[in-house]
Every structure is written in structure tokens, then in C-alpha cells.
Amino acid sequence: MFSQAELEKAIKDLESKSKSFSDCEKLSALYTVYDHHFTQKESKTAYTETFIDNYGDNEFFTIIQGREAVGVWAVMNELMMTLQLLNPKLYHATLRKIDSL
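Request: output the structure for the sequence above.
Response:
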């Protein structure tokens, strides 16, 4: 078995290398294992907005306003899965930011 410190070192080592697709695949697997074994998942009440309200006037908020939330979340999930492969550092920073809300 592996320790949290060993896993964190492997992640740090790969993050410091130039990013090939192979490195990104390895990082993705390491992050998945890390998230599964070493992060606490809290049970939170689901937010059940059916249609997206007006949250601002930037391009993103303007486009999603009035759309069904379930569809918007599906698109955002695809985006996050892509981000996890292409830029794992940004992916995890985004998750930490959301988790701290």
C-alpha cells in the first residue's frame, strides 16, 4: 500500500515535469486515487434550482440565464472532466475553491 506522503510526492514530481499527454494521464490517475483515499467528502443538501436565475451580466451568466440547471451542470461536468486531464493543477484548485464555499 502507499502513504499519503508518497502519493503527494509522486503528484508533485509529475507536476514539475513538462506535460506530455502520458504525464497528464498519470497525474489524473494519481489525483483520482488521492481524492478517493485522502479527502473527506461531506454530505451537503442538494441545490435544486430548476432554471438558472440571473447571476450577473458577463457572457457566461447571460448565456445560462433561463436554461435548465440540469443541462448546464452536465456541460460544466464535461468541462471539469476535460480540465482534469489537460490541467490537473487548475482542476484541483477549482475544486478546492468550490469546497471552501
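The radius of gyration is 17 Å.
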